[in-house]
Amino acid sequence: MNETFKKAIEDGASDIHIKAGDYVRARLHGNLVPTVDGEGRVVAAEIMRVTGTIRDCILDSDRLDKIHDLIADGKGQYGSQTFDQHLMHLVSSGMITFEVGKGAANSPSDFDLKMNILGGPGSGHAGGVSGGDPNAMFS
After folding, report:
1. Which of 12, 46, 69, 71 has the most CB atoms in a 10 Å sphere around its CB?
2. Residues 103, 46, 97, CA angle at the centre, nearest 5°?
3. Which tens digit of pLDDT belongs to each residue from 16-60?
4. CA-to-CA distance for 27 and 114, rounded, in angstroms?
5. Is the pLDDT of residue 92 over 50?
6. Where in the chain are the domains?
7. The domain made up of 2-127 is a member of CATH 1.10.3720.10
8. Where are the beta strands (DSSP E) in the chain?
């Protein structure tokens, strides 16, 4: 999300962040990724609910980099989730393979590290937290 605002500001639309801060209530972005059986696709989505804190970050272009962490931290309370959080959930639930999740992740190395720590079902990695709840790490 912050990349969208940064690009708009660089392109001369310096007031876009102010307008977005006033009018945006939530943002949903998704990509289709192949399912385990290879015969279908499932949506992996980033969901950002605009809270007061996120609105303040949108209005202050120097704080745009904080939005991603706020989305991740807001999973339990606001129902927000990063794209990579949802990919980890899809891997842990057996809907997609670890390789597909890692390949689609915004940060493949972080995705790999977090799945290694979790050792969730379908991750292809041993060890980590029993049960592999990818959301536990972000709550």
Report:
1. 71
2. 30
3. 444 555 556 777 889 999 999 999 999 999 999 989 999 888 888
4. 25
5. yes
6. 2-127
7. no
8. 26-34, 41-49
